[in-house]
Amino acid sequence: MLIVGAGPAGCTCGLLLLKKKVECLVIDQAEFPRDKICGGGLPPRSYRFLSQLLPEFRYDYNNVKRLKLSIEGREVIDIQMKEELRIVKRRQFDAQLLETYQKSGGAFLNDSLMDIEEKDGEVIATLKSGRQMSCDYLVGADGANSRVRKYLNPHCDRGSFILEQYGPKSPENAIQINLSASYQIGYYYSFPNAACDVQGFGDKNTTLQSFRQVLREMGCPDLKPMGAYIPQSTDYPLHERILLIGDAGGYANRLTFEGIYYAFLTASHAAEAISTGRPFAEVCRRTFVRKRTEERVARFFYSKTGLGILRFLCRTSPWLVRWCFIRLTT
Ligand SMILES: Cc1cc2nc3c(=O)[nH]c(=O)nc-3n(C[C@H](O)[C@H](O)[C@H](O)COP(=O)(O)OP(=O)(O)OC[C@H]3O[C@@H](n4cnc5c(N)ncnc54)[C@H](O)[C@@H]3O)c2cc1C
């Protein structure tokens, strides 16, 4: 079993396989701790699922219970949530996850996947070091620019480009979201982690210029922007022995862009498929259905009509909007 990528998807899959007594090797081209551009937001659904999968895993986070929603820069709702959202620093979180995997006896190699070949029913991976490895299963957990995915589908869509910067930490310790009819399926966010506020923006046409414009509108200083893609595919290339999980598979949420939950979820699907011999497509069936529903909901939510309805509900039935936001995260 070879898992390419030691992010949340790869390490979770490795840990779950270890629990099922399946030997595997995780490789990553980066030396850990490594940075990952990400808001680091774990809503209750995400951290509850994580503790169900890996009860032994301990990690650091900032606890946030306040969520402020604005539309066109005007605040429409200020929610105090019952359950906290956890904001992690990915550099730290991913290193802690890899450490847990290694301490559980998981094998790790710092190397990069360069090429994939198939011969006589086996998958052969060539690494940057020149090493060649043949394996029964190859799990592509290599993120947004996945080489494994390109092998299965050379013309895959890159998804949405998101830019973010680290701003000074505000005393409010609140998550802020702004929606606007001028954004093309996307939103502005500010997520407070333990050290700073991560301010980000992304939609279908994000550019440095549009990011700066949004920052100005939100009254944020223009600091050092960093960008990354969130792939959101609708094709999910499937292969008997090569499985794509997490961002490599394009599973991030269409509405919220949240991808860490889907990294855990698809990692658990891959571990189940590998350990039981069931086809990955079959294990993932309900997830595929959920993705298609999300796609439709996101298209409507971010349309002019969708935002109009949201604005109307914020005025007339804020309790309903509050309920929807809480449902969305739990
Ligand atoms: C700006 C931004 C903000 C986001 N905010 C949130 C958020 O608040 N909440 C949330 O849930 N999600 C968020 N996401 C999405 C989230 O970051 C991803 O969904 C998540 O990181 C996916 O995890 P992964 O393990 O699939 O991939 P990754 O975390 O990207 O890990 C992939 C790993 O593969 C390694 N790798 C790549 N290529 C190779 C190779 N050829 N050989 C060996 N190793 C390789 C990389 O070094 C990396 O360590 C955000 C994304 C972006 C871009």
Distance between the termini: 33 Å
The side-by-side strand order for the widest beta sheet comes to 3-5-4-12-13-14-11-15
Q: Could you name the CATH class?
A: Alpha Beta
Structural class: alpha/beta
Main β-sheet: number of strands, strand sense, barrel status? 8 strands, mixed
What general form does the structure show? globular
Number of beta-strand segments: 16
Query: What is the share of helical residues?
Result: 25-40%
Radius of gyration: 20 Å
What is the N-to-C succession of helices and strands?
Answer: EHEEHEEHEEEEEHEEEEHEEHHHHH
Q: Which parts are unreliable, with pLDDT below 50 for 5 consecutive residues or more?
A: none
Q: How many structural units, i.e. domains?
A: 1
Assign the CATH superfamily. FAD/NAD(P)-binding domain
Number of helices: 10
Mean of residue pLDDT values = 93
CATH architect. name: 3-Layer(bba) Sandwich
**β content, as a range?**
25-35%
Name the bound molecules: flavin-adenine dinucleotide
CATH-defined fold name = FAD/NAD(P)-binding domain
Write a structural description:
With 330 residues, this protein is an alpha/beta fold. The protein has a single domain, classed as FAD/NAD(P)-binding domain (3-Layer(bba) Sandwich), CATH 3.50.50.60. The chain has ten helices and 16 strands. Strands 3-5-4-12-13-14-11-15 form an eight-stranded mixed β-sheet. Strand 8 and strand 9 form a beta hairpin. The protein is globular and about 65 Å long. The chain starts with a strand and ends with a helix. The mean pLDDT is 93. Bound molecules: flavin-adenine dinucleotide.
